[in-house]
Design goal:
The protein is of the alpha/beta class. The protein has 2 domains: 2-154, SPOUT methyltransferase, trefoil knot domain (Alpha/beta knot); 170-247, Orthogonal Bundle (Trp Operon Repressor, Chain A). 35% of the residues lie in helices and 18% in strands. It has helices spanning 14-17, 23-27, 64-77, 97-104, 121-127, 143-154, 205-223, 225-233, 239-247; strands at residues 2-7, 32-37, 50-51, 61-62, 84-94, 108-112, 130-133, 186-189, 192-195. The protein has a 5-stranded parallel beta sheet with strand order 2-1-6-5-7, sandwiched between helices. α4 (97-104) links the parallel β5 (84-94) and β6 (108-112). α7 packs across α8.
């Protein structure tokens, strides 16, 4: 798959694409990332990509014409194909695991990284197919959300992670992932011994699986009861899950 990134700061991407376990996906072109510096498509001596908003107000707005030229160049380089164009904005749909899996199974997209007060609305109305947000907060630009999407998509590619690591991630089955423990078996912190839960040392795979499921249910119920409600409504909870939730008063 191929992701074309339109950005004013292409230098922000290079360290991430060459670091960590997901670099395998980028190095092997399982996720082919191509960077398009937006100032290359601006005109004039100063290569301006922004101007004051009509109607007044603070800040600057990204100009339509450089963005349109960049999008046309990407389309031409792709052989005239019209992939999804993603604009990252606080007003967009919240990015979640289901959307990540959708992109991970597709052919890629164009990622438009806005800056300043935003992008000229006419570009959004005529070229953008998806508007996404990381959450209810404001960032300086779209580069960090673009990196987040690239990372999330890359780790789902075959051979990047040791299977079935991502299958046990938070949200993969609609719940938050429960706690994890490693060596040593007994650890003293601030004078208090904190051993690993005995069930994890039992060797009984069925009991371990059930304990992990119950821990995930309990954690999700405490922190994200909306996810429990969604899982219940979708029929993703079995009889044992429902009995355990009932024991918690849920």
């Amino acid at each position: 798959m191929r992701f074309d990134v339109l950005t004013l700061f292409p230098e922000l991407f290079a360290p991430h694409l060459a670091t960590g376990v997901t670099r395998r996906a980028f190095e092997q072109r399982l996720v082919d990332v191509r960077l398009w510096p937006l100032r290359d498509f601006a005109e004039g001596a100063y290569r301006r990509v922004d101007d004051r908003p009509f109607g007044g107000g603070p800040g600057m707005v990204m100009l339509a014409e450089p963005l349109l030229r960049a999008l046309d160049a990407v389309a031409a380089d792709r052989g005239g194909s019209a992939p999804a164009v993603v604009h990252f904005t606080p007003t967009g749909q919240r990015l979640d695991q289901a959307l990540v899996e959708h992109f991970a199974q597709g052919s890629g997209a164009v990622l438009l990284c806005g800056r300043y007060e935003g992008v000229d609305q006419r570009v959004i109305e005529t070229r953008v197919t998806h508007e996404l947000s990381l959450g209810d907060f404001v960032l300086s630009g779209g580069e960090l959300p673009a990196l987040a999407l690239l990372d999330a998509v890359a780790r789902l590619q075959p051979g990047v992670l040791t299977a079935p690591s991502h299958e046990q991630d938070s949200f993969s089955d609609g719940l938050l992932e429960g706690p994890q423990y490693s060596r040593p078996e007994r650890l003293v912190i601030d004078g208090v011994e904190r051993p690993v839960p005995p069930v994890l040392l039992s060797g009984h795979h069925g009991e371990v699986a059930r304990w992990r499921r119950e821990q995930a249910l309990a954690l999700t119920a405490r922190r994200r009861p909306d996810l429990i409600a969604a899982a219940r409504a979708a029929g993703r909870l079995d009889a044992a899950d429902l009995r355990f939730l009932a024991s918690l008063g849920l």
